[in-house]
Automatic annotation (TrEMBL), chain A:
It comes from Dictyobacter vulcani. The chain crosses the membrane at residues 33-51, 71-92, 112-133, 153-177, 189-211, 217-245, 257-277, 297-319, 331-356, 376-399. Signal peptide: none annotated. The keyword Glycoprotein does not apply. Residues 9-20 have a biased composition (Polar residues). The keyword Zinc-finger does not apply. This is Uncharacterized protein. Coiled coil: none annotated. The lineage of its organism: Bacteria, Bacillati, Chloroflexota, Ktedonobacteria, Ktedonobacterales. Residues 1-20 are annotated as: Disordered. Keywords: Membrane, Transmembrane, Transmembrane helix.
TrEMBL record, chain B:
Residues 1-28 form the signal peptide. The chain crosses the membrane at residues 151-169. The keyword Signal applies. Keywords: Membrane, Signal, Transmembrane, Transmembrane helix. It comes from the Bacteria. This is YtkA-like domain-containing protein.
Length: 412, 186
């Protein structure tokens, strides 16, 4: 995306101050109303994604237009069309030299379109997801209904969804940055403005999205020991967003708040999804894949975010100490990496315990049944696995640092 | 010259009209044949002898097709359902659809169905009537579009990951630039 350097809004010598204020306020209203609408679509898609995963398990994919697919694709289409509308409208306003729509508040795309960065990224993600839909259906037609996350066009759809959600964080973050720069003091909830809460909610949705597919991560086999890799996306994702939310809001406590928001998501998901499957099956007179295996509320999945709570508390505590010392909760890069590596340990430790009844794959290390394992070999595998997981935690923290700062500063 | 060109043009027009007419007739003929059964199997479903008519043979994945059940004894008032059952090696689930009376005076029943995955499937007909319940099954092999090479599919499917990698690098450099300019200003 090239960044144009020449376009600038005419200054107040040409346009009366009142007009400038009005148009600026219109611009803010347009972007903020769109942001909250996008958040609504995101929550809808999030429910659809988990519903789809469970539909596959309990009912089976009988056609493309299953109820969860309908929910997912109305979300993707709605968000995509909204992003497209905003991009086109902002391009029009940019070309008309509307105050507030210039190179400081938009990015250039293909040298023709000029739109806020978040909406552009989001539109691209939604487009990718829409393109992947018929291709994914085609793949199912060829290879069956149970091809899971690791199919090419599932990956494409999932990546598109992730890009779209990151776009949403940019949308909320840029508006929050603009709001901070204005003289008006906004209303605060839990010490955060509504737009900052939007950032936290969107990040919570992204983490919930990671929870949708984390158990599909592959199992690596070394000798007679199988190693689950599902903690890696959890560790990297959690550390990334815990540090990013802290840096982008500069508020101590937001890492813990993020985990509570995530828990709210998982509870709502568990309340909705089993009920939705039972209702849809009843209405459509469909059989369950395994008669008698009917979905119900599962407390262990609903409370899974508790596994991340200690890490969040550690990060917030350290940020609190840092703020008292330096007046800023930001850590140096080296400290961030160390925190990322160490804060991944509680996640690694608690997640298998919480998931113990939820899935037989909960234990990270699964030795082959009936074959004795050498303690030295097991010890080596555990040590190496923990080091890799800590590396993922450090990587997540490093990305959280980068993106957190950009989301703090970016007004585009 | 004109004497040659004019009859040639007339001949061309005539040929073109013939071509249009022929293709139109061919299309009409194919549409007519579409209303007929593409495959008929006569089977016994318990006490009932029935003809199972498929409107497409082979059925194609995700394309709707009709199954019509015509009992040999037209006076029987039958009801029931058809179940698309995945055959050996096919990854799918049972897909039941209720049969509805056609009202053709032959006691026929009909269901519009689709099959989502290619491969071997059984079409199981379960009937209920005055002589009790009965079940029959016929086998079909469902066709699918030609397969894309897996490497190509993965290339297309994983292409957005390149975007994410590029984006991370871009944003990292952007942040470094911002930090440098802030440091210079300070």
């Amino acid at each position: 995306m090239a960044q144009s350097k020449v376009h600038a809004t005419p200054q107040s010598t040409e346009i009366p101050a009142r007009t400038l204020t009005t148009t600026h306020s219109q611009e803010r209203t347009l972007r903020r109303v769109s942001a909250w609408l996008l958040l609504f679509f995101l929550l809808q898609g999030e429910l659809g994604a988990v519903w789809d995963r469970e539909w596959h398990a309990y009912v089976g994919r009988d056609q493309f237009w299953t109820p969860p697919h309908t929910l997912i694709y109305t979300c993707v289409s709605g968000a995509g069309l909204l992003a497209l509308a905003v991009v086109l409208w902002e391009t029009f306003r940019y070309r008309r030299h509307t105050p507030g729509v210039d190179d400081t508040s938009t990015v250039a795309i293909f040298r023709f379109f000029h739109a806020p960065l978040g909406f552009s990224v989001l539109g691209f993600g939604a487009l990718l997801s829409l393109i992947s839909a018929p291709l994914d259906n085609y793949w199912h037609e060829l290879y069956g209904i149970d091809i899971a996350l690791w199919a090419p066009f599932h990956m494409m759809g999932v990546t598109g969804g992730l890009i779209g959600m990151l776009g949403m964080v940019y949308v909320f973050a840029s508006e929050a940055a603009i709001e901070r720069a204005s003289t008006r003091e906004p209303r605060r909830y839990f010490g955060l403005t509504a737009l900052e809460l939007g950032i936290v909610m969107t990040m919570g949705s992204i983490l919930n999205y990671a929870l949708t597919g984390f158990l599909q991560f592959p199992i690596i086999t070394i000798g007679t020991i199988h190693i689950d890799t599902y903690p890696l996306p959890l560790v990297a994702g959690c550390l990334l967003f815990m540090l990013a939310v802290l840096r982008s809001t500069q508020k101590v406590g937001t890492a813990t708040l993020l985990i509570f928001v995530l828990m709210l998501h998982t509870i709502v998901v568990e309340l909705f999804v089993p009920w939705a499957i039972r209702t849809a099956v009843d209405v459509q007179h469909m059989p369950y894949r395994q008669p008698g295996l009917i979905p119900h509320f599962q407390l262990d999945y609903a409370l899974l975010p508790i596994a991340f709570l200690l890490s969040a508390l550690i990060i917030d505590f350290l940020a609190y100490r840092q703020q008292r010392k330096t007046d800023s909760p930001n850590f140096s890069m080296r400290t961030t990496l160390i925190i990322g590596a160490l804060a991944s340990l509680p996640i690694l430790l608690f997640t298998p315990f919480i998931l113990l009844k939820y899935t037989p794959y909960a234990p990270i290390f699964l030795p082959e049944k009936g074959i004795p394992v050498e303690p030295v070999q097991m010890g080596m595998i555990v040590v190496v696995s923990v080091i890799i997981a800590m590396g993922f935690g450090a990587l997540g923290a490093w990305l959280g640092d980068d993106f957190g700062d950009i989301w703090r500063w970016s007004k585009r | 010259m004109d004497k040659i060109l004019r009859p040639l043009a007339l001949l061309c027009m005539l040929g073109f009209s013939m071509l249009l007419l022929t293709s139109g007739m061919a299309r009409a003929a194919s549409q007519d044949s579409g209303t007929q059964a593409a495959r008929i199997d006569t089977v016994s479903a318990g006490p009932y002898i029935i003809a199972v008519n498929l409107s497409k043979d082979p059925p194609i994945t995700d394309e709707q097709f009709d199954i019509t059940i015509v009992p040999r004894d037209a006076s029987l008032k039958l009801n029931g359902k058809v179940i698309m059952q995945p055959g050996p090696g096919t990854n799918g689930i049972n897909l039941p659809t209720n049969l509805t009376p056609v009202g053709d005076g032959k006691g026929s029943l009909k269901a519009s169905v689709h099959i989502p995955v290619q491969g071997a499937w059984n079409i199981v007909t379960q009937l209920d009537g005055p002589k009790g319940a009965g079940q029959a099954s016929i086998q079909v092999v469902v066709g699918a579009p030609g397969a894309m090479a897996p490497w190509l599919a993965w290339l297309i499917g994983s292409s957005p990951l390149v975007f994410i990698a590029f984006w991370i690098i871009h944003q990292h450099r952007y942040r470094q630039r911002l930090l440098t300019s802030r440091a210079n200003m300070a």
